[in-house]
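check this:
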Amino acid sequence: MKLISLELDDDFRSLKSGFRVDFLSEFDDVDTKEFNPYCIVGRNGSGKSNILEVLGSIFYHLEVEYLKFLPKQQYLNENEEVEYEEMEIFSSLSTSPNAYKLQYYISPTFDKGSYTHVTITKEKDQKARVNINKNYDNDLGASEAKEYLPQHIIGYSSGENEILSLPFLRMRMIQYEEYINYLEQDIQYLASESRMIYLDDSFSQAIFISNFLFPQPIIQEVFGETIGVKGVKEFRMVINLGSKIQNLAGDKLKIKKGILTKIQKLKNCATLYYKDSDTKQLTLDFYVDDACRKAFKKEFGQRLELFKFFQQLITMNYYRIDEKTRAKLYTTNSPYAKGFIPEASWDDRFFTFKHFKIEKTGVDELILTRQLSDGEHQFMHSIGLALLYKDTSSLFLLDEPETHFNPAWRAKYISTLRDCFDGDDVSPEVLITSHSPFIVSDSKRENVLVFEKDEKNIVECHRPDFNTFGASVNKITMKIFDQTDTIGDYAIQELNKLRDRLNKGEEIEVLISDINKLLGDSIEKTLFINEVLDKEL
């Protein structure tokens, strides 16, 4: 997938009507197999995350428009009781943003390797129209349009960006209700129709296991060389078949279809398993060796299929969310929507991982993943999701994926992502918001989007006025983040005290001795010493 442009004819957050961002200039000059993510930078509050949020919102409403299954329209009446309407959930006529034009190239699954020009246009209070190859007189129907949407829309935020997560959380709820509906109608359920997934920390262990059970050299290189994790050695899964979901699904949980068929596949891969006759909890233990990996290969085929099944199991943890809460989540625009969702204890969850132990370089015994640092978790998570969705025409919306990385990891983040997608027939479109000058330095100028607010507080987007690729972090910090000092603010204050002493006529030798004792090497220190020596002359 290659984004071309986005133009808003309606306000969205801090992006005002008339906002436009051009991604590509000439598609003919683009190497469609080369991975070049967009680095979206700017100071805090500049509106850079809004570009991820608006794309997430647009594709969510398109998904809702084309899904075959949707829950009934739910709302709360004045007594805060849930009522239903016989209409489909969420009219696509009035959405946020309510008017826009989005253009991109995509390689459809039925013709992998070729690229089609797609235009999605929405006028105010009208349904979005999908056209291909600039044929605006022929709007695609639902089944055709779905062929030209991204294979997957993947959201990730290292912080609390609830505006980005909200459409993805709504889609999770739809996926849950879809599964329950299939059970109630005794229809085989293989996978969710929706292509949206928000990979928050509840998916970390699923991402890690799915990658390491299907080993490839790139997986060993990425995790082994960077963070010293050699592999997963043992873990446990607990599936709570005696939970409230039993009451929702009734006897249909006994059918050998869909999700239960795949639970049997897990049992076929397990080293041992046990079902408690009182609690109805199924416990599966796995010791990871070649036999275990071969079993997963036989039962699930590839790591993405295994991960999709884990996604279904994790989504089933929503069984505890009542209709009233679901109604709130479907309709609210609150930035605190995630707070509506109750967090279940381990014993109350439908599905959970436990006793997840890994091998780590320099450590004699196995350790729990809980013992890894925040940076190690984030590295496995953000790089692991890229490995899962290799060779797909997907859209990645990554909000500050490297916040917990040390400088060395930040410096190699883009090159590591490149290694993940190396050799793919098609590459995804990846948008990364960041404050890291290292990521900017690894991005070509045409792939860096700088967000700023003008004097009227209106967000503007432009390319840098210098060649970013290979530029020093100091230059990037000064030019993009308007930070001219290379040392901290407290050190600057101490340096200014020395300058005051200089201006008051203190002895040169004393000042130079004190500055050498006080400050480490820096441009500021060198300039001040030169200032002192010039004064002596």
In short: Residues 489-536 form one domain. The chain has a mean pLDDT of 85. The first helix runs from residue 48 to 66.
